[in-house]
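Exercise 7b. Backbone tokens:
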């Protein structure tokens, strides 16, 4: 095994351990936690057994294993960007609604204070 493989495998195991800690602490959901656990363990497996990508690529009709890895990585990254964009749009909508409610609430309180001042005078 090469030094590169050992370093990457240790990093993947460390990352998988940290994901497990976050799942246990309920810092991330089980679904995303399972995704990240599979991701880091998969990366470790591919680095430990690099011939597996060539074997899988041949079965899928891709010429080289590294090409398959790049295709899957690009598709996965685009999907994650899509999910993040949806989440950001939802958060922006929630913030807009909250600010409107706070503004209307503050405006209503100000109006009631103005009415109280008028009745006192």
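Sequence design result:
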């Amino acid at each position: 095994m090469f030094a590169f493989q050992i370093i990457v495998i240790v990093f993947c195991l460390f990352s998988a351990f940290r994901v497990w800690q976050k799942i246990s602490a309920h810092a991330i959901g089980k679904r995303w936690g399972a995704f990240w656990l599979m991701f880091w363990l998969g990366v470790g497996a591919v680095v430990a057994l690099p011939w597996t990508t060539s074997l899988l690529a041949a079965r899928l009709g891709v010429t080289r294993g590294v090409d398959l890895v790049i295709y899957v990585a690009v598709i996965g990254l685009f999907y994650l960007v899509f999910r993040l964009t949806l989440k950001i749009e939802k958060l922006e909508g929630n913030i807009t609604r909250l600010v409107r409610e706070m503004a209307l609430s503050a405006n209503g309180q100000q109006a009631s204070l103005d009415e109280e001042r008028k009745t006192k005078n």
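Instructor comment: The chain has two domains: 1-49, 65-121. Residues 80 and 96 are 24 Å apart (CA to CA).
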